[in-house]
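Supplementary notes for students who missed Thursday's class. We covered one full example, reproduced here. Read the sequence, then the structure, then the short commentary at the end.
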Amino acid sequence: MNETRRTAFAVGAHPDDVELNMAGTLVLLAQAGFEPHMMNVTRSNLDSNELSEAEITRIRRAEAERSAKVIDAIYHPPIVDDLLILYNETLLRKITAIVREIRPSIVLLPSLNDYMEDHTNTARLVVTACFSRAMRHFQSDPPREPTDQDVYLYHAQPHLNRDGMRNFVVPDLLANITPVMATKLEMLGCHESQRQWLDETQGLDDYLESMRRTSAEMAALRGQTGWQFAEGFRQHSHIGFSNRDHDLLAEVLGDQLFNRSAASRPLLSVGCRR
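Structure (token representation):
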């Protein structure tokens, strides 16, 4: 890989997780010159009650690869079965290897509080993998040389914008994905096998329309003309990840990103000497 090229890494627990909550922002980053990378940690081997485990695993992998190809993203294959994303040494070493190999400067990852453990444990694993990227005595699997680049982590919204206790999660950052919504829909539409599965297990009769609704709900927080759809994020602490407290996503996206917390922060009065 070109060492001067900036990389964005979007990670979800399952195929379609990135597409539901982060893909629009990943598209914007790709348009800004970042090399996009995508990964779903699980093989989604349990995503059907009709097909064999081997068949649904094959289908889900093909759908994920097809989605990544829409934006020419580099796809990283899954490493574990459904429901087995546990915060453990084995998975941590594997994800650390990927982080060291691709050297991302922006990482989009799940919320630390969501309705299922696959999502939250993915977030925890990716956070620690990024934290350990420079630790020479922590061996990745496969072995990769440590890296010391600054990396900025952004947690996406939980499923349907609610945490595991049904509370609406208000993000700090909003990315205007209205101009790239058609691409986000195309990527999510690659996961055709999920239409029936999500209807049966989670009551989502149309997963494409559900995604549009949750994106519109985020845009409503901005309340500005031209913002029909948005993705929400909360930035992780910079401590252990970058040399300075900085919002790289805002720097790259410019007026396509709105910082709600900064906008509502009162101005500090500055006293002057007489």
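Commentary. Residues 53-70 form the longest helix (18 residues). The chain has one domain: 7-264. If anything here is unclear, bring it to office hours.
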